[in-house]
Design a protein that fits this description.
Number of helices: 6
Radius of gyration: 25 Å
Strand content: over 45%
C-alpha cells in the first residue's frame, strides 16, 4: 500500500519568527527566565515530528503552545472527520489561527492513519558560541577583581535517535577562568545526560542531569513554567514527569538517575539525585550551616568562587499517575536533605520559610475534561506543616469564547524547594489568589484577550512592611490589517503594596505600574519583513515617573533561506529605572533576550544567519547601546567608563 506523507511547509525563518513572537508573549518583561531549556525540548520535538493522525493526547501536550482546549478540539476533529490531509484543514478547527498553524507545522507531518511510524536516522549536532563586550568593565581592570577573561564561551553536543538521546553542555561566563585558576579542567560548568527509550519508547531511563515536573507544580516543576501572559489560555500544566536537562541554569535541575515505566493506563516515575549547590556557608557554635543559596551561576570573584558547590543535597521522589481518556490522576512524594542545615538571616519575612536539613512534600493532582470544560488542580502538603491547593477551569461556553480560571490558596507555612506553580510571587509560599482570563473572537479578523488576577500575601514579604494584597489586569486587541499585515494593542496595569522608603518606615504604599504598547508587523514581500512598536510606561509609588520607547525592525530572508538577518533601531527615554521599558530582541539560535532599558539613548543591532552548506550554519550579532548625558554605565565591577555598550556574538552549528 502506498503511504502518503505531507510535511509541514514552513521554513526555518518562518518557524523562528513565529516561535520568537510566542516566546516574547510568554516572557513579557521577565529578563531572567530560563527559556533555553524550553528551546532545547522543542528542538528535540522538531527533529522527531509527530504524525498528526496518530499522535496521542500526551504527545500534543508536550507542545507548550497548545492549550488543553486546543488539544481537545484537535483530537475531536480527528475523531469526527478522520484523517487530516494538510495544514489547510486545521483552519476549520475552532481556536486554530494562522499563526498557531504556522508554528504547529514545524512539529508535525500529515501521514496516513494506519501508516508505520516514520523512521528517523540518528542525528548529531555541535553548537559553539562566543560572546564578548567590547568595552572594558571595571572588574577586568588592574588589579582585576575577576579571575578570568571577558569572553563568554558555550559548547553543546547533542545526539538523538529513536531510542537514545544524549547531550553535553559546557559554559564559561564572562570573568570566569578557563583552563586555569579555579577551573583547571576548562569550562566552569558542565552538564551531561543520556536517555534510553525501551519497548518502543514506553519506558524511559535517565542518567545524568534531568528535571522533574508533576501536576500543577505545587510539589515539583523545574525549568520553564507558564505563568501570566497575553497567552491567557495557556495556564494549565500537563503532567510531564521526567525530562532530560541541557540548559545553562546551574541550579534548577537534578543530577543522578531516574526512570519512567508505562504500565497500561498507569505510569510510574522514580528518581534519585545527588547534587552540589552554590551557597553562603557559615557556622553557629562551630557547627557548619548555610544561610542562603547563590543562584546567579557566576564564579568570577573570590567570594563567588568560595560559594561554588559548597553544599550537597540528596533528593529522591516518586510519582504514580493514572490516565483514562480525558481523565488523569496522580500522586507525588518527594524528600530533600541537605549536607548542612539551612539557617536563614533573622528577619520577619524569613519567619515561615524553610529552615533545617530536610523537607518532604506530598501531592495529588488531577485533570478531567467534560464536553467543553476542562478541570485541573493539585493539593499538596509540606513537612513544615503547610498545605497548598490550586484548582483551575478552562472552558469554551460558546463558539469563539474561551475562559480560564485559577484559584490558589498556599499557606505561609508551605515550602517546596522544587515547586514552580502558577503564582504571583517567585516562591510557592504564602499566597491566596484568583485569576480569570478570556479570549474572545467577535469577528474573523479581531481577537480580544484579557485577564484579571487578584492576590494577597498574609505575611510579610521582603518588599512589604506587612500583609498585603494586589491586583493585575491585561487587555490586548489583535487584528488582521491585510493579507501580510497584523497588529495588536496591549494595556497592562498592576497595583501592589510595597514598603515605603525609610530606615524606620513600617507602612505599605501602593505601587502601580502601567504599560501601553502598539505593535504592527508585516511583510513587504516574501523576502522583506517589518516590525514597528511604540510603548509607554508609568510608575507611581512615593514619586511618579514615566518612560517610552519606539523601535523599528527590518528583516530579510534570501531565496532558499540560505541567508537571513534582522536589523533594529530603537530610541528610549525614561525618568529612572522604575519606569524601565522591556523590549524583546532577536538573537542567535536558541538564544532569547528581553533586556530592560532606562535613561535616555539609542539601541541598535544586526543579527544574521548564513547557511554555509547543508551541515554548517553561522550566526553573528552586533549590538550597541548609546546613552545620552552619562559618563559611565553600570556599577561596581560591571562599571563601564563611557556612554556606549557594545556586544558581539558569534555562533557555529554543525549538524551531521
Amino acid at each position: 500500500m502506498l503511504t502518503s506523507v505531507v510535511m509541514g511547509q514552513t521554513t526555518d525563518f518562518d518557524f523562528q519568527t513565529e516561535l520568537e513572537d510566542l516566546v516574547e508573549t510568554l516572557l513579557e518583561d521577565d529578563e531572567n527566565a530560563d527559556i533555553e531549556q524550553l528551546m532545547n525540548e522543542l528542538q528535540l520535538l522538531q527533529d522527531r515530528p509527530l504524525n498528526i493522525n496518530q499522535a496521542t493526547r500526551d504527545d500534543f501536550e508536550r507542545l507548550y503552545f497548545l492549550s488543553s482546549l486546543q488539544v481537545d478540539r484537535l483530537l475531536t476533529y480527528r475523531q469526527q472527520y478522520g484523517q487530516i490531509y494538510s495544514p489547510f484543514e486545521l483552519n476549520s478547527i475552532e481556536g486554530f489561527d494562522p499563526k498557531l498553524i504556522q508554528l504547529l507545522q514545524a512539529f508535525v507531518y500529515f501521514g496516513e492513519v494506519d501508516a508505520r511510524p516514520m523512521t528517523f536516522k540518528p542525528r548529531q549536532e555541535i553548537l559553539m558560541r562566543s560572546i564578548r563586550l567590547l568595552e572594558e568593565q571595571k572588574g577586568f581592570q588592574e588589579p582585576a577583581k575577576y579571575e578570568g577573561s571577558p569572553e563568554k564561551l558555550y559548547f553543546r553536543y547533542r545526539f538523538s535517535s529513536s531510542q537514545v538521546n544524549a547531550g553535553l553542555t559546557a559554559e564559561k561566563d564572562a570573568g570566569e577562568s578557563f583552563f586555569g585558576g579555579s577551573n583547571p579542567r576548562g569550562f566552569d560548568y558542565y552538564s551531561a545526560f543520556v536517555n534510553f527509550g525501551l519497548n518502543k519508547g514506553k519506558h524511559q531511563l535517565y542518567f545524568g542531569d534531568y528535571l522533574v515536573r508533576f501536576g500543577q507544580g505545587l510539589t515539583a516543576w523545574q525549568g520553564f513554567a507558564l505563568s501570566k501572559s497575553a497567552e491567557v489560555g495557556n495556564v494549565a500544566k500537563f503532567n510531564q514527569g521526567i525530562r532530560s536537562y541541557s540548559s545553562t541554569d546551574e541550579n534548577n535541575f537534578l543530577r543522578g538517575g531516574a526512570a519512567s515505566l508505562s504500565l497500561g493506563q498507569f505510569e510510574w516515575s522514580s528518581f534519585f539525585s545527588y547534587k552540589k549547590f552554590d551557597a553562603n556557608r557559615d557556622s553557629i557554635d562551630g557547627a557548619p550551616v548555610f544561610t542562603s543559596f547563590q543562584s546567579s551561576g557566576l564564579h568570577r570573584t573570590s567570594g563567588e568562587i568560595e560559594d561554588k558547590n559548597s553544599v550537597a543535597g540528596i533528593t529522591a521522589g516518586t510519582n504514580l499517575s493514572y490516565s483514562a481518556g480525558r481523565f488523569s490522576f496522580g500522586f507525588s512524594a518527594i524528600h530533600l536533605q541537605y549536607e548542612f542545615p539551612l539557617q536563614r538571616q533573622s528577619s520577619s519575612y524569613n519567619l515561615f520559610l524553610f529552615e533545617g536539613k530536610q523537607i518532604s512534600n506530598l501531592g495529588v493532582n488531577y485533570q478531567w475534561g467534560i464536553n467543553r470544560y476542562y478541570f485541573f488542580g493539585e493539593a499538596a502538603w509540606a513537612s513544615t506543616n503547610g498545605l497548598a491547593t490550586l484548582h483551575g477551569l478552562q472552558a469554551s461556553p460558546a463558539d469563539q469564547v474561551e475562559l480560564s480560571v485559577i484559584y490558589r490558596n498556599i499557606s505561609k507555612k508551605y515550602n517546596a524547594p522544587l515547586a514552580g506553580a502558577f503564582t504571583e510571587g517567585s516562591q510557592v509560599n504564602d499566597e491566596h489568589g484568583f485569576y480569570v482570563g478570556a479570549t474572545i473572537r467577535p469577528v474573523a479578523k479581531l481577537s480580544l484577550r484579557m485577564y484579571a488576577d487578584f492576590f494577597e500575601h498574609r505575611w510579610v514579604k521582603y518588599t512589604t512592611a506587612g500583609p498585603a494584597s494586589g491586583r493585575e489586569y491585561l487587555v490586548q486587541a489583535s487584528y488582521k490589517l491585510a493579507d501580510r499585515w497584523d497588529a495588536y494593542s496591549r494595556y497592562f496595569y498592576e497595583c501592589k503594596p510595597v514598603r515605603a522608603n525609610g530606615e524606620f518606615t513600617k507602612i505599605n504604599l501602593d505601587q502601580t505600574r502601567q504599560k501601553l504598547r502598539i505593535h504592527v508587523n508585516g511583510s513587504l514581500s516574501d523576502r522583506f519583513f517589518l516590525k514597528s512598536r511604540a510603548e509607554w510606561t508609568w510608575y507611581a509609588h512615593e514619586e511618579m515617573s514615566a518612560g517610552w520607547m519606539v523601535l523599528q525592525d527590518v528583516g530579510y530572508q534570501s531565496l532558499e533561506s540560505r541567508m537571513s538577518w534582522w536589523l533594529r533601531l530603537a530610541y528610549f527615554s525614561t525618568d529612572n529605572y522604575d519606569a524601565r521599558v522591556y523590549a524583546y530582541e532577536n538573537d542567535l539560535l536558541y538564544q532569547f533576550s528581553v533586556p530592560a532599558f532606562y535613561g535616555q539613548g539609542l539601541r541598535s543591532y544586526v543579527n544574521g544567519k548564513v547557511k554555509i552548506c547543508e551541515k554548517l550554519d553561522v550566526w553573528v550579532k552586533l549590538a550597541r547601546s548609546w546613552f545620552i548625558d552619562v559618563e559611565s554605565i553600570g556599577s561596581g565591577n560591571s562599571l563601564i567608563d563611557g556612554n556606549k555598550r557594545t556586544e558581539v556574538k558569534f555562533q557555529l552549528r554543525f549538524k551531521f
